[in-house]
Amino acid sequence: MRSRRRAVLRFALGVAVAAAVFAYALPHIASYGDVIHELGTISTAWAVALGAAALLDVLTAALPWMAVLPQVSFLQALAFTQASTALTTVLPGGAPLGMAISFGFLRRLRVDRGGAAFAVAVTGIWSQTMIFLYPLVGAILVFATGQLSTSTAVIAGVSAVAGAAIVGIAVAALRSPTAALRLGNAAASFVAWVKGIFHRPPPAWGGESLVRFREERLVLLRRRWAVLTAATLANQLTAYITFVFSLRAVGISSATIPLSEAFLAWALGRVISSLPLTPGGIGVVELGMIGTLVGFGAPNAHVVAAVLLFRGLVVLPSLVVGAVGLPALRFLAPPEPEPS
Alpha-carbon distance 210 to 112, whole Å? Predict the structure, then answer.
């Protein structure tokens, strides 16, 4: 009961923060009337390009999971990833909650516990490592132009340290059975906490499961790590393309915000969205990206319009597809094996 009360309070606080950002912070940067005016200037060609980019962002979400779980079909992977994304958008918890939900959906698709746990861990590690390293890459690119502020450099450095820490933990878990045992127990404890909020029984797996399947899955990982890396990059960078299109569609030229500065703003937004601050990072992500772009000298109304457009294109399609994918999982799941 106490865990559930804390979750409700955290959700309420997150909603309050998001509401404060949209009701008070953003109107001080640019009036919504000016923002609507800028959105109204988007041409038909840009609208088509934005729609195509948003669709590609949704479709590529299935690729990393198919790389580590070859037995999962494209439709299965698409349905459960979008359902998981939709739930993490409306619930507080960030990336850790998304990983716990993904595990439950994989079990619904009849993926064995060891395979599901390993897939969630590996895709999560690959994704989070890249997310935390992107700001460092963006900072290096922007530094070459002399536009990098001290605060942004510090944020990029902290993100890089976090990414390096994730890589270190992952390497230790893959190389050492003891580290794998500890990591598996920690993951099981977190999943048990999430299930406790919804009055579900704790998972039947733990660190021993990760150790038991470690050697078998390492063989697959050695064969598929390059495919997993390419699939993760393809999925994440389609969102960056959507962001660049959003900037250009509202009239922010490459002379005002070059690709390097756009990449850094997008990278910082990705880091913020992975933190359990507000449901789906709504409010804080927008504020962080807008502040970065305004700091680079882009017009306020154009920036707010571009960021809100981008966030709508990455959030709303996932909610729609996820709402369809959640009930569809029942029909996409393979039949239970008949008892022998």
Answer: 12
